[in-house]
């Protein structure tokens, strides 16, 4: 069972922070033969990244919205994110090549997208939640009294827990 923390907490992290969103749109749901391979590729990549402590992936969460899944990823380096994306020995490159082959045969059946956000400051608050988001990817710490407001936490960059 997931532990719920009733206290007010925030995240703590010192270092480069990158939020990477990646998702797919299922445009022809009646054709799982066209979109299912794309859907199934992501768990293999996430497993590969999670098993490598030097990959740069700090954590992730999966959401579903609109026409498909979105994975919110937290990275400790833009360079490591790009290195993984271009590594011919990693699972991403073959999956990307396979997606492109399928997309040429059935244009528009499935879409993929991503957004990359290097973050210089981040603010978070968690009350009555299990470990999630930045706190799960980094460290969850109590909110210090002088940082009880979001504006105060954001002004302290990633060190909102310090007294």
Automatic annotation (TrEMBL):
List, alphabetically, the InterPro entries matched: Monooxy_af470
A Pfam family matched in the record: Monooxy_af470-like
Know the name of this protein? DUF4188 domain-containing protein
Source organism per UniProt: Rhodococcus opacus
């Amino acid at each position: 069972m997931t532990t719920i923390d009733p206290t007010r907490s925030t995240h703590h992290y010192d270092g480069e922070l990158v939020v990477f969103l990646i998702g797919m749109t299922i445009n022809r749901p009646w054709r799982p033969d066209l979109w299912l391979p794309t859907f199934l590729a992501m768990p293999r990549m996430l497993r590969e990244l999670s098993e490598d402590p030097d990959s740069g992936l700090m954590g992730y969460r999966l959401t579903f919205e609109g026409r498909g899944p979105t994975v919110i990823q937290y990275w400790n380096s833009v360079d490591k994110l790009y290195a993984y994306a271009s590594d011919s020995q990693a699972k991403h490159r073959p999956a990307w090549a396979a997606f492109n082959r399928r997309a040429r045969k059935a244009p528009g059946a499935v879409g993929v997208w991503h957004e990359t956000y290097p973050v210089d400051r981040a603010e978070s608050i968690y009350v009555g939640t299990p470990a999630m988001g930045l706190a799960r990817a980094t460290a969850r710490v109590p909110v210090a009294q002088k940082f009880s407001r979001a504006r105060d936490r954001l002004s302290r960059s990633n060190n909102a827990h310090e007294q």
